[in-house]
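Reading a protein record of the kind used here takes only a little practice. To see the layout at work, look at the sequence and tokens printed below.
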Amino acid sequence: MKIMLVDDSDMFRKVTIENLKVCGYDDIVQACNGIEAMVQIDGVDLVIADICMPHMNGLALAQEMRRDLKYTRIPIIFITDVCQENTVLEAFKVGGDALILKPFKIEDLVDKIKEVMSRKRSPFTIKSK
């Protein structure tokens, strides 16, 4: 399984990738924002994305993914340190499959990965206006 980790913090990406590798997830690509993620998204099975990032945030990334039929079945786990009701609602409205609040234990992320990947995902598309 190929995972893409999208977060603007180099240190967060480094530590999370190291921890995921210890847990058996070896095929991980990374991006610092949604624009960079879209360039590398082909072949990815799961996206883990921060909501708050410069240039293209996680919500905008999800919207772009859901507009393209090639990417509508890729699950998205959002990670964030912002716990506002409207942010949580928006994360699911744009097609997110799960949300985890920072800071989190790697075991919680691994459990969420297993849970999300065990579901059979129907295509989730956002129609352009």
About this structure: The longest strand covers residues 46-50. The helical segments are 10-22, 34-40, 58-67, 85-93, 106-118. The domain at 3-118 is CATH 3.40.50.2300 (Rossmann fold). The radius of gyration is 13 Å.
